[in-house]
Amino acid sequence: MTVPMASSALSPSSAPRPAEPPATTVSRLRWAVVDAWTMTRRDLAHWTNQPGMLVANLLFSVMVLLMFGLLFGGAMAVPGDYWEFLVPGVLALTMVFGIESTFTAVNTDLARGVTDRFRSLPMAGSAVVVGRASADLLSSVVTLAALTATGLAAGWQPHGGLAPTLAAFGLLLLLRLAMLWVGIYLGLVARGPESVMALQILVWPVGFLSNAFVSPATMPGWLGALAEWNPLSATVAATRDLFGNPGWTSDSWVATHPVLPALVWPVLLIAVFFPLSIRRYRRLSR
């Protein structure tokens, strides 16, 4: 049967299904996709009914962009206009910091027993985590749109043309997808929602130890090397290149070939944490 919704805003929209998974591969895939979409709609309905968290996340992202651009921009030593250096960095940084909201949502459902109720239903084992990832990715599209509009209003412009600009946004969403699966896995293994403080202690240094706000060339040598090889820095450098915005000057391989690391890092993270998340979800009661 169709998975019952946690929110009254949704109602079953498909015919009843057997309790056991379909026998054929195609039927099982369709079964999993329908269940995942049902869970995506459930999460989206929560944001529609309680938009406060989504609005707060949007305002925080816009505040970070404006704070660094207006308050600190004049003191930053970067090539070219600081807005054009800053906006790609904040776009990518927001994709990484989104891990906190994903972690909190997954772990809260787990702590309140919502996840256990879902696991008792005749639904695909991947539906809950895939639905969460899909909903959070759609939320990230809204965040990117709001930040892009703010950046354009502040004077930032992409100069690379339509196709490179779309490719840059694709890399940003790929990074967000990788962070989604990291957040889902950590949310499933953490002891409670209060563990988000420990997550912040890990995520914030990674976010700021990058080329998002300043050039690694301004850092001490060993620290600059760490910043250059940060997965976040790879996405920032690649999006600046695709947007046609100024980046940091360096002869290192990662600085002169930014797009490939921006693809490889997220794919590696997804390859590791996607199966770990599915496995952890299926083994929650063991």
UniProtKB/TrEMBL annotation:
<feature type="transmembrane region" description="Helical">
    <location>
        <begin position="201"/>
        <end position="223"/>
    </location>
</feature>
<keyword id="KW-0046">Antibiotic resistance</keyword>
<dbReference type="GO" id="GO:0140359">
    <property type="term" value="F:ABC-type transporter activity"/>
</dbReference>
<comment type="similarity">
    <text>Belongs to the ABC-2 integral membrane protein family.</text>
</comment>
<feature type="transmembrane region" description="Helical">
    <location>
        <begin position="259"/>
        <end position="278"/>
    </location>
</feature>
<feature type="transmembrane region" description="Helical">
    <location>
        <begin position="85"/>
        <end position="106"/>
    </location>
</feature>
<dbReference type="InterPro" id="IPR051784">
    <property type="entry name" value="Nod_factor_ABC_transporter"/>
</dbReference>
<feature type="domain" description="ABC transmembrane type-2">
    <location>
        <begin position="52"/>
        <end position="284"/>
    </location>
</feature>
<feature type="region of interest" description="Disordered">
    <location>
        <begin position="1"/>
        <end position="23"/>
    </location>
</feature>
<keyword id="KW-0812">Transmembrane</keyword>
<dbReference type="InterPro" id="IPR013525">
    <property type="entry name" value="ABC2_TM"/>
</dbReference>
<feature type="transmembrane region" description="Helical">
    <location>
        <begin position="166"/>
        <end position="189"/>
    </location>
</feature>
<keyword id="KW-0472">Membrane</keyword>
<keyword id="KW-1003">Cell membrane</keyword>
<dbReference type="GO" id="GO:0046677">
    <property type="term" value="P:response to antibiotic"/>
</dbReference>
<feature type="compositionally biased region" description="Low complexity">
    <location>
        <begin position="1"/>
        <end position="17"/>
    </location>
</feature>
<protein>
    <recommendedName>
        <fullName>Transport permease protein</fullName>
    </recommendedName>
</protein>
<dbReference type="InterPro" id="IPR047817">
    <property type="entry name" value="ABC2_TM_bact-type"/>
</dbReference>
<keyword id="KW-0813">Transport</keyword>
<dbReference type="Pfam" id="PF01061">
    <property type="entry name" value="ABC2_membrane"/>
</dbReference>
<dbReference type="InterPro" id="IPR000412">
    <property type="entry name" value="ABC_2_transport"/>
</dbReference>
<dbReference type="GO" id="GO:0043190">
    <property type="term" value="C:ATP-binding cassette (ABC) transporter complex"/>
</dbReference>
<feature type="transmembrane region" description="Helical">
    <location>
        <begin position="54"/>
        <end position="79"/>
    </location>
</feature>
<keyword id="KW-1133">Transmembrane helix</keyword>
<feature type="transmembrane region" description="Helical">
    <location>
        <begin position="127"/>
        <end position="154"/>
    </location>
</feature>
